[in-house]
Write a structure and sequence with these properties.
The protein has 156 residues and is an all-alpha fold. It contains 6 helices and no strands. It is 78% helix and 0% strand.
């Protein structure tokens, strides 16, 4: 059975692979894109579930009703690892969602990269930046024109 330190390392390495694929590799191959969007977050989610479900009820005074209860939970090494894996899974999943939505909107990969890096390092900051950028982009009249189908795209 791996130690918590080993699991921490494995989870971090898996997430890093996902971020490298998401930021640097082409997204034209569906299978490659599925790795950071679904496969790695699923694996991390299963690890989280195992850690959280096997340790949550073992932490005396732990819970989610107060900051003190959360502090008690995170005072347990396994639950602290579960919390970290939770961040890794959700941040990567949100990064995958951002990448797909940015691609659909035609956002250049050079603009996407800093947003994805912020999502990797500071999850909600990257998400907020993307949502604000996307709201501003779609508010532009030329973006609305770009979304209209051309004559060739309109079914007869």
């Amino acid at each position: 059975m791996p130690t918590t330190d080993q699991l921490f390392g494995y989870a971090g390495q898996a997430a890093m692979v996902g971020w490298v694929i998401l930021i640097f590799l082409p997204r034209r191959w569906a299978l490659l894109t599925a790795i950071p969007r679904f496969v790695i977050p699923l694996g991390l989610s299963l690890l989280y579930a195992g850690l959280a479900m096997s340790n949550f009820f073992l932490v005396e005074g732990g819970g989610y009703s107060s900051l003190d209860q959360v502090a008690a939970l995170l005072g347990n090494r396994e639950m602290l690892l579960a919390g970290w894996v939770h961040y890794l899974a959700f941040d990567l999943f949100i990064g995958g969602w951002i990448a797909v939505k940015a691609d659909e909107a035609g956002v250049n990969r050079l603009i996407q990269a800093p947003i994805l890096l912020l999502t990797f390092m500071f999850g909600p900051v990257g998400l907020a930046l993307f949502l604000l950028m996307r709201a501003g982009y779609f508010a532009k009249p030329e973006a609305a024109l770009a979304k209209q189908p051309t004559q060739q795209e309109v079914p007869a």
